[in-house]
Amino acid sequence: MNTPKPESARLRGRPKAFNDKTDQNTIKALDRAMHVLRSLSELENATLTTLAQTTGDPAASVYRILVTLQAHDIVELDTSDQTWHVGPGAFQIGSVFLRRTSLIERAREPMRDLMEATGETANLGIRSGGDVLFVSQIETHAPIRAFFPPGTRGDLHASGIGKVLLSAMEPERRAAILPSPLPRYTDATLSDPEALAADLTRIAARGYSVDDEEKNTGMRCIAAPVRNLHGEVVAGISVSGPTSRVAPDRVADFARQVIDAAETLSQRLGARPRAPRDD
After folding, report:
1. Which of 67, 180, 202, 220 would you call most buried, defined as having the most Cβ atoms within 10 angstroms of its Cβ?
2. Angle at the Cα of 89 (from 84 to 90), degrees rounded to 5?
3. What is the domain extent for residue 106?
4. What's the chain's average pLDDT?
């Protein structure tokens, strides 16, 4: 007679050797399929030929992966031009991630108010590994605008939200997640570690960051940290727009509006109100 294992002895979602990342714990076919899916999401749409060239896998293998994913609505084929797209099944699965926290839902009103007050696009981002993951956006109605659709990733050191998130970390933790060397995108990119560290110190002191054409020439972004009920920085909220509108003489005013929006969202997440700043 088999005696049931006590609850404490049962697997809780990962085996004893869960830290073992060797090939024996990796399903290669699934790994290849995820690579194809991620490549398709980055391309937004692609023919079989383009996707095979992008992934470096044989077209026949990529096709079998696509057909398998299509059976689960993870991808879909537009027969009019023979292009593959990420399907509704992927959204349904991904939406579970969005429901893990009330952050996104609670951010909508403060972000909308921020966009209307500044006239610029409002963004919400979190850290995902060594990147910023943009999870929500309220677009401005202006014809020229920043565009970071949900799911877009960005560099931590070259984005307003990314620098806000970095400024809340200990130096050792930053060093563990930032690439070396730091990629340089424009003449203004803070690719020197010492220059970046100095900027992060200023950000932590004043409560907001400025991405001053550090990723894209002609675009400026101002961001502030969002805290949870424990006082931990869990996200960043920002406004982004062309430098012609987000001009240097408007940065201070924009920063106050962004800080207010971040504080409103923080309190909605249970954070204690911050003491007002003298500046």
Report:
1. 220
2. 75
3. 101-268
4. 88
pLDDT tens-digit profile of 257-279? 999 999 999 999 888 887 766 55
Residue 256 lies in a domain: yes
d(CA 103, CA 236): 11
Largest CA distance in the chain: 79
Report the domain count for the chain: 2
Instruction: Show Cβ contacts of residue 149 under 8 Å, excluding neighbours closer than 6 positions.
Output: 134, 137
Could you tell me if 191 and 249 lie in one domain?
Answer: yes
User: Of 67, 92, 117, which residue sits at a domain end?
Assistant: 92
Residue by residue, DSSP assigns 153-195 as EEESTTSHHHHHHHHTS-HHHHHHHS-SSPP--STT---SHHH
Classify residue 5: in a domain, yes or no. no
pLDDT at 7: 47
CA 18-132-128 angle, 5° bins = 10
Q: Quote the pLDDT of residue 101.
A: 59
User: In angstroms, rounded to a whole number, what is the distance separating the alpha carbons of residues 72 and 216?
Assistant: 38
